[in-house]
From TrEMBL:
Pfam families: Asp_protease_2, PDZ_2. Residues 205-248 form the PDZ domain. It comes from Aquisphaera giovannonii. GO terms for biological process: proteolysis. This is Serine endoprotease. Keywords: Hydrolase, Protease. One of its GO terms (molecular function) is peptidase activity.
Length: 290
């Protein structure tokens, strides 16, 4: 291989989300794109109750039904409703199929959510019975109906007043990115191998060989040094094993190309090689390849 022939008013308090551990497909289903409500309608105040668990509880109407008891969780990546609330508010049909996993009913949409002085529309949710809600509801002695998370909070600039037990929501012009829906494909990896071309910005004048020993190789062998090149002027020789270029260790050919790409033409670059079993530091001034 040849190298160098071309060149806010109060910070939000967050906590660990109740929804940790939701399967990727479930999380993905709830993160369909949601357009933020138009800005300029003014802030809305929502009262909440701080539970002994330090979760914020609000009472909300869903599609005109309720009120339902919902947890406002700043760390939750999605918004979810339990099956009872989902069916009662008409978000899903009673005969919608259930998954064996937590009674999951899949992706749905709340047409209208009314909480305090705030009304939100077209809110994407998923419907299933998360075990954390049941555990927390049993501990409190009253059932909980869902968790409000990122797909709601991303629409607003939120201020929390813990002394008054109030949240203030001001609409912002923001469109929720569909990051979670891409998660399964990201985990599965690309269908085709990605290619990256590394090209140094300067001329060095040497050829590299493949390292021997894989990850245990001390560096990259120099197979040839071109006469009259910057590498030759610096004293590099065939048979040298390059271990460092600049501030980067070079254990693969890709390391050498990446490090060479950061070196500027006409400026000294420190190169460390192994020669006859001894470490030798040299200075190479790569030439302009333009």
């Amino acid at each position: 291989m040849r190298l160098g022939l071309a060149a806010g008013p109060r910070p939000l308090r967050t906590r660990a989300g109740l929804i940790a551990g939701i399967p990727a497909l479930a999380v993905a289903a709830a993160c369909a794109l949601a357009q933020a409500p138009p800005a300029g309608k003014g802030p809305a105040v929502v009262p909440f109750t701080m539970l002994p668990s330090n979760h914020m509880l609000v009472k909300a109407k869903i599609n005109g039904k309720g009120p339902y008891r919902l947890i406002f969780d700043l760390g939750a990546p999605i918004t979810l409703l339990g099956n009872r609330a989902g069916e009662g508010a008409g978000v899903i049909k009673p005969d919608a199929p259930r998954s064996f996993l937590m009674g999951m009913r899949g992706e749905a949409q709340v047409d209208k959510l009314e909480v305090g002085g705030l009304t939100a529309t077209k809110l994407p949710v998923i419907v299933f019975d998360h075990p954390a809600l049941k555990v927390l509801g049993d501990a409190l002695g009253e059932p909980l109906d869902g968790i409000i998370g990122f797909t709601f909070f991303a629409r607003y600039r939120t201020t929390i007043d813990y002394q008054k037990d109030e949240m203030t929501f001001e609409p912002v012009d923001f469109r929720i990115r569909d990051l979670m829906k891409e998660l399964p494909d990201r985990l599965a990896g690309p269908r085709e191998a990605a290619r990256r071309v590394l090209a140094p910005r300067a001329v060095w004048g040497l050829r590299l060989g493949e390292p021997k020993g894989g990850v245990d190789s001390p560096g990259v062998p120099i197979r040839e040094v071109l006469p009259g090149s910057p590498a030759a002027a610096a004293g590099l020789k065939p048979g040298d094993v390059m271990t460092t270029l600049g501030d980067r260790w070079t254990t693969t050919v890709a390391d050498v190309f990446a490090a060479a790409g950061d070196a500027e033409p006409g400026k000294d670059a420190r190169v460390v090689v192994l020669r006859d079993g001894k470490e030798l530091a040299l200075t190479v001034r790569p030439a302009d390849g333009a």
